Amino acid sequence: MEPVNSIKIFHLRYNNIFMKKLLIAGMVLAGLGIGFQSVAQTGYGKKPATPPATTPAAQPPAAQPAPKTAAPTTAAPAAKGGTAAKNKKGAPQATANQAVQAAPAPAPVLAAVPKVDTIPVEYDTTSAISKPEISLRNAFATDRSQNRDRKPLEYEHLREDDNMWSEFIWREIDAREKMNQSFNYPGTDDNGDRRFFSILVNAIQFDSITAFGDDMFTRPYSADKIRSIVNGGLDTVDVPDLENGGIKKKQVTYKPLFSFDSVYTFRIKEQIIFDKEASRLFTRIIGIAPIAKRLVGGRSEPFTLFWLYYPDLRKTFAKIDVYNPKNFSSRMTWEELFESRYFSSYITKSSANNPKNIDLLQISGNNKMMRLYEGENIKNRIFNFEQDLWQY
């Protein structure tokens, strides 16, 4: 009876379906244990710090701690599943710590130090419009205090009903001509710069003269507008170091659009009237405009800076003397110069026979010589008109 029972027990152990499944599950768990150990040794896909070997690894240098010996890769039997499970659970953690210890420490990142510009910056915002400096002592041998109190003579009243004939004339004064050299005299005296353009700008800045954008005096300019026209914009200029080389400093200053010496042309608008009550011809200046040069398409073209109403300027002109190169004591004022017609000019436009209101240069086809001839014809026509009114 005993051998029969042994055979039955043997068949029950190996033919039972449950035991077969248990055997297959044990084999699968053993295979997974082998996979976990190999992954842990290689640092989860990274190159292992020490290659796995059956023999103990070589001793590392004294400065670094010795790495732990790699766990064996042979699978444990299914009967010893509990011990194998403990080894598999501890192996990944130990191998990860080993990989962290073996990895080199990252290099420290230094913060970028901003470059400091050691070149000093100097601000020179001195305007080209300078107030005349008044002398603290009398710079002349004679008493000239009365010059500050001079006033122009009032104009003779002209009624509109007595205006029998009238014509508007535009002229240009070129300071390069010998007779007009006083308009571009660069000297200074108690009234400041003697250039005529400087006198006009100072009259706007310090005598409250209003500038306009057209010769009909309909668009007034502010003083800030005139300063921006004269001074230009701010610009940075490098000042070289002549002794040591390089750049000594940077200077922020005004960059003018033009120099005062380049303004040597002045346009005048005047009206010629024949008054039948006085039986004479009157010439009254209405406005004055400085003309500057600018580059347009590579060519120098003139353009009008602003217009000034001449009757407003008469009080300023009466206090400023004109440079006389031959006799300093016989100087006239700017008001006397214009009223006495002591300047040379040429006609650029007339209101007579000009329905399109264009310049003589456009009428003559941009021929400057023909413009001069046409201007002389206008002068002769006005002269003959006055002479023909009388019978001798």
Can you describe what's shown?
The chain has 392 residues and is of the alpha+beta class. Among the domains are: 1-44 and 74-82; 147-228 and 259-344, no CATH class. Helix content is 31%, strand content 21%. It has helices at 2-15, 17-41, 81-102, 196-206, 223-231, 310-317, 334-339, 360-363, 368-388, and strands at 121-124, 163-174, 188-189, 192-193, 211-212, 220-221, 233-240, 247-255, 265-275, 280-296, 299-304, 307-309, 346-350. The strands form three sheets. Strands 2, 5, 6, 9, 10, 11, 12 and 13 form an eight-stranded antiparallel sheet that branches. Helix 2 runs parallel beside helix 3. Residues 43-58 and 60-92 have low confidence and may be disordered.
- β-strand amount: 15-25%
- Count of alpha and pi helical runs: 9
| Anisotropy-based shape | elongated
Q: State the total count of DSSP E strands.
A: 13
Task: Tell me the structural class.
Answer: alpha+beta
Secondary-structure element pattern, one letter each: HHHEEEEHEEHEEEEEEHHEHH
In terms of per-residue confidence, which ranges show pLDDT below 50 for 5 or more consecutive residues?
A: 43-58, 60-92
Distance between the termini: 183 Å
- The gyration radius over C-alpha positions equals 52 Å
| Oligomeric state, counting identical vs distinct chains | single chain
What does the average pLDDT come to?
77
Largest sheet: 8 strands, antiparallel
- Helix content bin: 25-40%
Summarize the topology:
Elements: H1 2-15, H2 17-41, H3 81-102, E1 121-124, E2 163-174, E3 188-189, E4 192-193, H4 196-206, E5 211-212, E6 220-221, H5 223-231, E7 233-240, E8 247-255, E9 265-275, E10 280-296, E11 299-304, E12 307-309, H6 310-317, H7 334-339, E13 346-350, H8 360-363, H9 368-388
Parallel strand pairs: 1-8
Antiparallel strand pairs: 2-9, 2-13, 3-4, 5-6, 5-12, 7-8, 9-10, 10-11, 10-12
Helix pairs in contact: 2-3
